[in-house]
Amino acid sequence: MLIRILAAMLLATAMAGAAAANFNATAYGARPDGKTMNTKAIQAAIDAAARDGGTVTFTAGTYLTGSIFVKSGVTLRLDKGVTLLGSQDIGDYPLRPTRIAGIEMKWPAALVNIYRQQDAAIEGEGTIDGDGKVFWDSYWTLRKAYEPRGLRWASDYDAHRPRLIQVFDSSRVKVGGGLLLRRSGFWTLHICYSTDVTVDGVVIRNNSDGLGPSTDGIDIDSSRKVLVQHADIDVNDDALCLKAGRDADGLRVARPTEDVVIRDSIVRSAAAGITFGSETSGGFRNIEAYRITVEGKVPVGILFKSAHTRGGFGDNLRLHDITMKGIPVVLRITMNWNPSYSYARIPAGVTDVPPVWKVLATPVPVEQGRARFRNVRIWNIKATGATRAFEVDGFKEAPLQRFSLKNLDIEAREGGYLHDIEDWRFEDTRLVLGTPVALEDAGAVNGLPPASFVVRPRPFKEDPSKKSYEEQDKS
């Protein structure tokens, strides 16, 4: 009898604890009418859950809100039928120390933040909607004013725009469960300085209200032990992107992105399917991406991009089992990406200089500025309907070293070019091309099928009627 009584008491305690663990935001004053500003009410529910440990839930409807901060031990659950709608007032996103496009600075908080916390989650089949067009428009207005002054590089930092979700300096974090993330004002999901992060099951749709600048999908930035899987991405910039700091500031921080797995995902619209950079300063180590499908409006399947002032490295990178359908360029590597953005020079006579401009314009020694990529394995790539197989440009002084490419099956109109490479090996490769590929260093490549390649320098002539992707900005 005593055992039964104790069991009943334990069950009652567990049920009471389970009931107490559910904190519905409407009980704290949140109203799902799409008009009431709910920031304080939602945050009150989160803070209550943080004190007792538990889950914040919502009654079905649309909740207008500014920045909210998920605390340690809290799960923010958005069930189907629930939408968090971002405020269009930048004042509703308080400034916080963070990193933006490779530079440490104060920047508006994201709509939903896990900021210096542990054991937190954002999950469910609901929606987080940034309603970001007002921020896209403000960026274009500023950039239009900046470009004639030689300040293209500064516009991205001075035009404040909120990210949709930020995971910053946090550990043991989960995001996903079927979340729909849409219309982000800036990057959609930014994982920075964080460890043990799992993103499992997100749908990102940023192009439903136009084409927003810098509406990246998932950015993994100087973080480690990250898993991204079951992502479905439609954005207007990088989709699945690895970052690690920019120029002098990134070299000062010197934090790599490492021990990352990206798998079982699809990219439908983006600047590239999988991207390394352009923020390469801290380096990349032990990254694996596989079972990725890239289709639709995506100009490049696999993209490595850096600049002469970035520095950093890539080592033990493994990309495999990737399918590309109608993607113009299969593999692009450029160490001189988008010069008008990549190189910060303060024009003569400009005296009112924000601190971030000085950081961006800090010189980097030439040798330190060369990114070094080595020990890269790419295999099981199936690409059909491509315009060009390769567009590869390394540094003469720091060639791209020890790339192994195996079991490539590429159908492309042109071969393209491989410049400044060393010890590249091709194995079991099928290239059906209309034009051979040009190699600058014949001694650096092994295993190339002679029918598909011409081993001699031959500069590629770009069609002058077509602007580059960087010039278009997909505006």
Automatic annotation (TrEMBL):
Signal peptide interval: 1-20
Keyword Signal: yes
Renumbered residue ranges of the record's region Disordered: 456-475
Biased composition (Basic and acidic residues): 459-475
Magnesium among keywords: no
Pfam families from the UniProt entry: Glyco_hydro_28 (PF00295)
Record's keyword terms, sorted: Glycosidase, Hydrolase, Signal
Domain of life of the organism encoding this protein: Bacteria
UniProt record similarity statement: Belongs to the glycosyl hydrolase 28 family.
Listed name of the protein: Glycoside hydrolase family 28 protein
Species, as recorded: Pseudoduganella buxea
Phylogenetic placement of the source organism: Bacteria, Pseudomonadati, Pseudomonadota, Betaproteobacteria, Burkholderiales
